[in-house]
Amino acid sequence: MKPYLLSLAAGMLVGIIYALLNVKSPAPPTIALIGLLGILLGEQAVPIAKRLLAGRPVMAYVRTDCAAHVLGPQAVKRDTNGSRA
């Protein structure tokens, strides 16, 4: 239940920001997609900053965990037998 309440609260916050900026909802598709991309990238800013401050490698994280989160599951090419090609 907690994730749903947090999601509702985040949605309300975005709604308040829309109202303050006089942006009508639903926003035009391009603006909405850019906003969603900003959310995905913003979610990764904190883990990257923590790694930088801790002196841990950042690029490996960006290429693996960060990329998987932002880009989603990637298709894997399979041969005719169903095995990975």
Structure, explained:
The protein has 85 residues and is an all-alpha fold. It contains three helices and no strands. The protein is 69% helix and 0% strand. It is extended and about 50 Å long. The protein has one domain (2-71). Helix 2 packs antiparallel against helix 3 (59-71). InterPro entries: DUF1427, XapX_domain.
What would a concise description of this structure say?
By secondary structure, this protein is an all-alpha fold.
Jot down its keywords.
85 residues, mainly alpha, extended, XapX domain-containing protein, transmembrane, XapX_domain, membrane, transmembrane helix
What's the structural blueprint in terms of helices and strands?
Blueprint (H helix, E strand, L loop, with lengths): L1 H20 L7 H26 L4 H13 L14
Low-pLDDT sequence parts: none
- What would the average pLDDT be, to the nearest integer? 80
What is Rg?
A: 18 Å
| Total count of strands | 0
Q: Please tell me what the overall shape is.
A: extended
Count of individual helical segments: 3
SSE pattern, N- to C-terminal: HHH
Strand content: under 5%
Helix-and-strand structural type: mainly alpha
- What's the helical proportion of residues? 55-70%
Domain tally: 1
